[in-house]
UniProtKB/TrEMBL annotation:
Pathway(s) it belongs to: Polyol metabolism; myo-inositol biosynthesis; myo-inositol from D-glucose 6-phosphate: step 2/2
Name of the protein described by the UniProt record: Inositol-1-monophosphatase
Species in which this protein is naturally found: Phaeomonas parva
Coiled-coil parts of chain: none
InterPro entries noted in UniProt: IMPase, Inositol_monoP_metal-BS, Inositol_monophosphatase-like
Length: 250
């Protein structure tokens, strides 16, 4: 049917389906887990703030990740549901209804695509790597310029550079060995240019359980609420990729 579309910003669409999906997911989760907390993309947008993550078990939901793809009829869109316990992601579920692909990760128990165990690729050089570049939500001139610079620097160093428009699926593609890395944001301490917690939460568990490494551009272990920049990569190319991305700001 027709998709009623509004906008949360220059690069962030929202549809009636986003809101309906989030309401449906939260209703089911609240009935099953009445003592848990909940953070959702649409409810956060409506309240104007993202709730703080506490030690209480917390579900973090993106009802449609890749809304622009969804609106445009591009079959790269998904529902992303993550669970944090003690402030750390422990469960991730990502479902792409277009391809009927269900990714599930449970801390300490592996990650799976339609029941088949996932394993990150063994690529150990950028020259052999397929890397996904994603813009964040911001479109400031400084961010766009640095994103263009990083793409230009990577362009002749990697096997291929791609943009798919769904952060959760990007991470799942790396976990499945279809691609070798995904990054978002730029190497500039004053610019918050990456994603929100609901974009990462489920994917982090799926990726880590498949052997992916998550870092920010500074090389620090990734924090779910860090919004400046982000890398998920096969272990063998993380440091080489990080060096190139940081050189874009030099």
């Amino acid at each position: 049917g027709a998709k009623k579309i509004t906008s949360k910003g220059v690069a962030d669409l929202v549809t009636a389906t986003d809101k309906a999906n989030e309401d449906l997911i939260f209703k089911g989760l609240r009935e099953a887990f009445p003592d848990h907390s909940f953070i959702g993309e649409e409810s956060s947008a409506e309240s104007g703030a993202v709730a703080a993550l506490t030690d209480t078990p917390t579900w973090i939901v993106d009802p449609i990740d890749g809304t622009t793809n969804f609106v445009s009829g591009i079959p790269l869109t998904c529902v992303s549901i993550g669970l944090c316990v003690g402030g750390k992601p422990v469960l991730g579920v990502v479902y792409n209804p277009c391809s009927d692909e269900l990714y599930v990760g449970l801390k300490g128990h592996g990650s799976y695509l339609n029941g088949v165990r996932l394993q990150v690729g063994d690529t150990d050089t950028l020259a052999d790597a397929v890397v996904i570049q994603e813009y964040g939500y911001e479109r400031e001139d400084g961010i766009l310029a640095l994103m263009s610079t990083s793409a230009a620097l990577l362009g002749n160093k990697v096997r291929a550079l791609r943009q798919f428009g769904s952060g959760a699926l990007d991470i799942c593609f790396v976990a499945a060995g279809r691609c070798d890395a995904v990054y978002a944001g730029v190497a500039h301490s004053g610019l918050c240019s990456a994603w929100w917690p609901w974009d990462y939460c489920a994917g982090i568990v799926i990726g880590e359980e498949a052997g992916c490494v998550f870092k920010n551009f500074a090389g620090e272990d990734f924090d779910l609420f860090y919004r400046k920049n982000f890398i998920c990569a096969a272990p063998g190319i993380m440091e080489e990729l990080r060096a190139v991305l940081n050189s874009a700001a030099s």
